[in-house]
What we know:
It contains nine helices and six strands. It is α+β, with helices and mostly antiparallel strands. The protein has one domain (3-207): Glutaredoxin (3-Layer(aba) Sandwich), CATH 3.40.30.10. The strands form two sheets. A four-stranded mixed sheet has the order 2-1-5-6. A hairpin with a 2-residue loop joins β5 and β6. α4 (98-112) packs across α8 (163-176) and α5 runs antiparallel to α6.
Amino acid sequence: MTEPVDLYVSFRSPFSALAMPDYRALARDLDIAIRLRPVLPLAVRKADFFRPENRPWVEHVRMDALRRAEMLGRVLIMPDPDPIVIDHATMQVAAEQPHIHRLTRLGIEAERRGRGLDFAVEVLGLIFSGTPDWNRGEHLERAAQRAGLDLTAMEAALIGGDHDADIAANQQALVASGHWGVPTGVVRGEPFFGQDRVDTLRWRLGTLGIGPRPGP
Length: 216
C-alpha cells in the first residue's frame, strides 16, 4: 500500500529549494505519495520573528544554505526580488505581501491538481536560480509548464478560491507534527525537519517496510 508523506515547504526557504531534488528522488524510488503542504514563511506567519537582534541567526542561515549548496554541487542564489517584501536594514516585514501569498496559493492549487511536488521543484528551482525578476515575464509560466501545469488556469482558480484556508490548515498541521520549520517531511506523525534529513526519512520508510515504487 502506498505510504502518504506530508511535505511542508515555504517558497522563500533556501533549504526547501535544496530539498526538492531529494524529495523528488524519494518519490521516484519508493512506494510513497508525497502531498505538498505549502506554508507561509515564518517572517510572515510571525511578524515579529525577524528582529534586528536576530540578524546573526539570519546571516548564519544564509551562510549555511549557500555552504550546503556548494557541498552538494547545486546552484543556490538568493533571489531578487525576495519572495517576501522586507526592509533588510531594519528587518521590518511589510504588511502587503504580493509575491509569497501568490506563490503559496499556487502551491495549494498545484497540489489540488496532483502536481504539487513537481511545481515546488520547478518554482523553487527558478526562484533560487539567480534568474533576475523571476516573478516577471514568462518565468513562472514556463516553470509551471515544466511541472505539467497551466499557470493561467491556476491563476483563474485562485480568484474567489479557498486556498488561504488550506494554507492555515497546513500551518496548524505542521505545528501539530512537532515542528514549525521547513522543509519538514512527516510520515505517520513523525517529523523530519531539514534538507539534510531526507536520508533519515528514507531510512525510516525502510524500517516501516515501504518498498520500491512498483514498475509500470
